[in-house]
Amino acid sequence: MKAMKCVAIFVRIMTLIACMIVSFQALSNQYDYPNNLLSVSIIPELEHPSVGQTQTLALKMTPQEGWHGYWKNPGDAGFANHFKWSLPEGVTVGDFAYPAPSQLLTSGLMNYIYHGEYVLLAPLTISKDYQDGESVDLVLELNYLVCNPESCLPESQSLSTTLTVGDGAKDSALQNRFNQWQALIPKPINETGQFYTSDETFTLRLPLPSSVDIKNVDIKNAHVYPVINDLMSNSAAQQFTLKDDRLTMTTTKGDLDGDLFEGVLELNNGTSLRFQAERIDASSSLSGQPDSWMDNDIVLSIIAFLGAIAGGLLLNIMPCVFPILSLKILSIAHQGSEKEARTGALAYTFGAVLVCVVLGGIILALRALGHQVGWAFQLQSPVVIATLIILMNAIGFNLAGLYELGTITSGSSLQESKGPKGDFWTGVLAAFIATPCTGPFMATALGAALVLPVVSAFMIFAGLGFGMALPFLLVSFIPRLRTVLPKPGAWMVTARRILALPMFITVLGLLWILMRQASSDFTLLVISATMLSTFGLWLTGLWQVSQRKMRWWPAIVLSLLPLLVMVSWDSDALAQPSQIEPNALQFDQAKLDELKTEHDVFLYFTADWCLTCKVNESTSIERDSVKEVFNQQGVVSMVGDWTNGDSVITQFLTKHKRSGVPLYLWYRKGSDVPEILPQILTPNILLNQLSEQ
Length: 693
Description:
Elements: H1 2-30, E1 38-44, E2 54-63, E3 69-75, E4 82-86, E5 91-93, E6 102-106, E7 109-114, E8 118-126, E9 135-147, E10 152-164, H2 172-184, E11 187-188, E12 193-198, E13 201-207, E14 223-226, E15 239-243, E16 246-252, E17 260-266, E18 272-279, H3 297-314, H4 322-331, H5 338-368, H6 382-400, H7 419-434, H8 442-449, H9 454-477, H10 479-482, H11 491-498, H12 500-517, H13 520-545, H14 553-567, E19 585-586, H15 589-595, E20 601-606, H16 611-621, H17 624-633, E21 636-641, H18 647-655, E22 663-667, E23 675-676, H19 683-691
Parallel strand pairs: 11-18, 12-18, 19-21, 20-21
Antiparallel strand pairs: 1-2, 2-8, 3-7, 4-9, 5-8, 6-7, 9-10, 12-13, 13-16, 14-17, 15-16, 17-18, 20-22, 22-23
């Protein structure tokens, strides 16, 4: 009996095997494909690669219509591609990089797939042991899965290609194809993200790099693809929120508990980013507490306000402001009363604060309307520059004694106080001509003003004006400080004449800026208008001495008339191409993205009217010793000239939370996140960037 049972069991097993074989044969006959369902080819970037250099190897995979291939993590079903290289000694091929996949949700299972053609990229390096003309044979054994909505079939292929070592010359048409493929590979987020789990929720927080246009990100269609399954649910819905440059994603947690999460973030605009995130404690989670104390708008507003005050204080040493402030402070020494001194200081402060707030309000309004403008936009207009040249020239000759704005009481004292009204307009003038230079402390503060709430932004702009007026306020409201001021006397007239010199230097500086902004015809017109205005001021000075009536008419007529001509001048004739340093490339985002993959890139933004920029360029950037080291190390310099205004540059500055120049960025080879360098440069600061690699 036992023997009969064993025979019966054996017969059943054999019958089952036979049925499986028949079924498999039937299935094979049903899908009788003479060729592979997924065609694969190896495409080298260079037909004749040079030794010691890394080139890119492309694996182009094209499923037949109706079929699809899989990402490196196939999702809830399927298996990943398997690669096995047979390479000669001295040749290495790195891991393949995948473009972002698509989602396929079937019966609650999520798969990550490619419907059409997709290309994987890997780095290939040939050692220096090879000589020109030698052949390099590459063989790849590939196993993969290909599916359609009804069935899945595993396939395998053996691919080979032969390269000939040569000069590494690039074919432009082929290079364009590789550039297109490379653009689809997710870019790295160099800053590590954070994630935590609580109950059934998985929360991920990622810092978006500066290369992402935050304003154009629509998070509705964003998706996170995990490299490793089970930390989060693949099939669950993902909810996104965006605050400043921080993206938060919440979904259902998975069954796996790990400390490191890797994945790819795909945004709706075609941008894809690969990232790593570390686990944090849920008790200090991202949802319950701010990420850091800097994320608190109130704290950030206060810090930016203090920075604006410090920046405004430094503006007082500008050549066009220092004489005005000096004369104002010295005039306190012979004010009639404490009340007059304090009233004058408050009027001056009100004028300075008002200009900064108005300029800030104009910037915020224009940006809200879609215009890309930044701080100091007024000096991007040649007509404004021309007006300032005539005005600074008039102030210089007033200080030099060619004419007087008030009544001279004696040769041993300055002009009489013009009262609060005069102090107010002095503050207006000082703020208007000083604000274009974004000095230390100001850059971060003004950049913060563009991303903080409107109330905070206006507080920062007001802080800038308050910082400019702070010395005048301190001397006016603290009588003890006035005791250290020298006594009024004949020396003040000499000091006044000396202070005329910085004003004339300012005129020359503005004229140099105009020559680089506008045509030679317009520059000649401005010089003629300035000479005509000076002649009118001289006549006014003569009529003041002779006590003639209507003594101001020569200055008014001969200054306003040419101004009206300049305002009506054809604006198209004013254009002058920007002039950049000969060894530097002109700023271009696409070129920057290409260069930083193979070189260190020093990118700086400047303007001819920015004193800090010009000092840094002459003392550091354009030094022969710095240029020589840059050339030896293969560092590429790129410059963005903001002299005439440029909406692309303005948008780039905004991404880096800056509203003006200078801005100095250092991109290390292969990095998308730059290091922001100090606003006051030295040659050592630049050269140290190379020693830190």
